[in-house]
Amino acid sequence: MTFKTLLTAAAFTVTSALASHACPAHEQHTMSCAEGTAWDADAKTCVPQTTS
Question: b/e map of 10-46 (b: 16 or more CB within 10 Å)?
Answer without folding.
Answer: eeeeeeeeeeeeeeeeeeeeeeeeeeeeeeeeeeeee
